[in-house]
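From the methods appendix. Each design record in this collection lists the tokenized structure first, followed by the designed amino acid sequence. Records were kept in a plain field format so they could be parsed without special tools. The example shown here is representative of the layout used throughout.

RECORD:
FOLD TOKENS (432 positions):
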């Protein structure tokens, strides 16, 4: 395959992924997740299986598009489901576990792929790279069937139905729990309501916040490169005083993913526990790490301090899996409207991916590695701007909360007035 054809194959996946996210989450409002998500998983598995049979690049383009389309609905949908079950002191832990699953998958898949390619190449006259797609499908299709059994219904969903492990009483309890924290059940979605969403700050600032996240999650087959990917180029560069083999370089890079997973777990537990459901302090803390690390790497001479580079590269992994904190905050800010919550979650992930697919072509060029000065300063600038966006969102959230409290008090006083509470009637005056 030629380089241009490979790039087009990546692009086809991206196009499918970006097109499918918002429609998928809207479909989820009408079709139970128990059926919709396994359906997407099945399409993904079948298209992946068919990929092992491709004989030309046009077939690959078509299959990669549908793989991206099927995969698009998964991540925002799962965060919407989590937001339909868990309170503010519970949500970030679950969202962080979901977010770090991508990092864990990357660790295990790299090992699995290396083993499959090495041990299965040529078996039954099938090339090693084709076996990788067969294995992916063999793993995926049974998981899709398990989803039909174990994926829960969403409390208040139009197709809410109990299952053998989640009774109607359990669903009623979950619904009551969400009502206690102001998380609204579903209502019919109309274009008038969608137009109303577009007139709120949530519609613009929340997707922008996640879109600007320098460490937003990376998706499979996305060829954009962020600053956590500098280390492999630095290790294999001819200018490096210590030359290492491929296996050693791969092992040295792995701690970045591991650090990202551990810090993601820490972020979720601290946000739910010690911070009592606050999200913005975690975002500011990890974004500060990004800012300091990016500036330090840009300023440090490339080969002056090898140990310093190792420390900074590993530190860059901190915060790579805190996307769950962002999605938890979006779930809570939009909690009074289930449909708006579904839409904004999908828009946020979609906007982030569009940005990651375009910008790296200009600021993360491979010819700039291993120094990548332009990309590092881009990351630092993005971090500063993101701090401003986080502060603005926090201000607006607090303002809206105060306005809601005032409106509730006015309504309460109005109800008392209508009932005559605290006031004398004309009959009382006449009796006096």
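DESIGN:
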């Amino acid at each position: 395959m030629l380089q241009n054809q490979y790039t087009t194959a990546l692009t086809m996946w991206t196009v499918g992924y970006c097109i499918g996210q918002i429609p998928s989450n809207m479909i989820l409002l009408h079709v139970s997740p128990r059926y919709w998500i396994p359906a997407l998983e099945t399409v993904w598995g079948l298209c992946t299986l068919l990929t092992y049979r491709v004989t030309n690049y046009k077939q690959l383009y078509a299959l990669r598009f549908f793989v991206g389309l099927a995969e698009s609905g998964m991540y925002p949908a799962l965060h919407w489901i989590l937001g339909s079950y868990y309170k503010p002191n519970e949500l970030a832990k679950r969202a962080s576990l979901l977010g770090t699953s991508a990092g864990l998958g990357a660790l295990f898949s790299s090992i699995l792929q290396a083993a499959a390619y090495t041990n299965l190449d040529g078996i039954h006259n099938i090339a090693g790279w084709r076996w990788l797609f067969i294995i992916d499908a063999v793993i995926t299709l049974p998981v899709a069937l398990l989803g039909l059994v174990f994926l829960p219904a969403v409390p208040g969903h139009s197709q809410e139905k109990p299952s053998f492990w989640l009774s109607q009483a359990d669903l009623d309890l979950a619904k009551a729990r969400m009502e206690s924290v102001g998380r609204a059940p579903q209502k019919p979605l109309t274009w008038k309501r969608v137009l109303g969403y577009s007139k709120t700050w949530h519609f613009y600032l929340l997707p922008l916040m996640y879109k600007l996240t320098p460490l937003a999650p990376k998706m499979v087959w996305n060829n954009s490169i962020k600053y956590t990917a500098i280390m492999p180029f630095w290790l294999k560069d001819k200018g490096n005083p210590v030359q290492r083999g491929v296996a050693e370089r791969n092992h040295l890079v792995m701690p970045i993913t591991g650090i990202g997973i551990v810090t993601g777990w820490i972020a979720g537990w601290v946000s739910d526990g010690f911070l009592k459901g606050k999200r913005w302090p975690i975002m500011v803390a990890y974004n500060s790490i990004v800012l300091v690390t990016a500036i330090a790497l840009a300023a440090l001479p490339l080969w002056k301090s090898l140990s310093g580079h190792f420390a900074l590269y590993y530190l860059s992994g901190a915060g790579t899996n805190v996307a769950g904190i962002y999605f938890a905050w979006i779930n809570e800010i939009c909690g009074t409207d289930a449909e708006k919550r579904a839409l904004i979650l999908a828009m946020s992930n979609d906007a982030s991916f569009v940005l990651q697919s375009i910008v790296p072509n200009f600021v993360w060029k491979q010819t700039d590695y291993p120094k990548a000065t332009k990309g590092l300063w881009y990351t630092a600038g993005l971090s500063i701007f993101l701090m401003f966006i986080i502060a603005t969102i926090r201000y607006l959230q607090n303002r809206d909360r105060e306005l809601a409290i005032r409106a509730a008090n006015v309504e309460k006083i109005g109800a008392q007035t209508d009932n005559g509470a605290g006031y004398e009637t004309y009959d009382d005056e006449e009796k006096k």
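APPENDIX NOTE: The chain has one domain: 3-155+197-418.
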